[in-house]
């Protein structure tokens, strides 16, 4: 772990995350009407599989309209470091079968982006880590087959937050309550949250799946709480950033460890 991302980079990434969140909320509010307006008679059939050809079952597969000539914000420095893919409104969704198969029906003609909402640790979300969109060009009434979605294997970044005073539980009833922002900044300068996966009486654990052999920036900050690193040194109140790479073949299981040491004055 060598270089440090600038705070302006992190602010930019977080700002982009908020923009995508707000855009998503708008799409959700207007989605039913958009789906009705964009229904058709086309279909797309394929399989949702891992990069070693194993089926991924019971996972939501979606088709969304492709934005016209919308490249990623900047060229990805490695083949696995991209996204997320920006799309227009979702027009269809279905869950994959036990063998990973799916059929998206009643599709309009046009360019559609296929994606899958994978959440299994160790699997990279295909539309958040893509270097290019999985686009299918569909003519009116056309039935497209063999449109497989391949989910790449990634490495799990583990983060341990020790909280001996259980301040994250907000015992003082602070308003707004204290919170942590834990995640990574991609080479495309997008912020992606690490998800809380477990909690005990001494702290919490977070995880996020990241691509192998890709330089990334880990970031952590808190509203209302002071944090310390594993060595006991207090972190900058504005947040902490650390660069890392999970090399394929290495043992990447050791977590990054931080401690909540008190409330901010």
Labels describing this entry:
single chain, Immunoglobulin-like, 265 residues, 5-stranded mixed sheet, mainly beta
Description of the molecule:
By secondary structure, this protein is mainly β. The protein folds into two domains: 38-151, Immunoglobulins (Immunoglobulin-like, Sandwich); 155-263, Immunoglobulin-like. It contains one helix and 17 strands. The protein has one helix spanning 7-37, and strands at 42-50, 60-66, 87-95, 101-107, 110-116, 135-138, 143-144, 149-151, 155-162, 179-185, 191-193, 195-200, 203-210, 216-223, 225-228, 240-244, 256-263. The strands form four sheets. The protein has a five-stranded mixed beta sheet, with no helix packed on it. Strands 1, 4, 7 and 8 form a four-stranded mixed beta sheet that branches. It is elongated. The model is unreliable at 25-37 and 70-80 (pLDDT under 50).
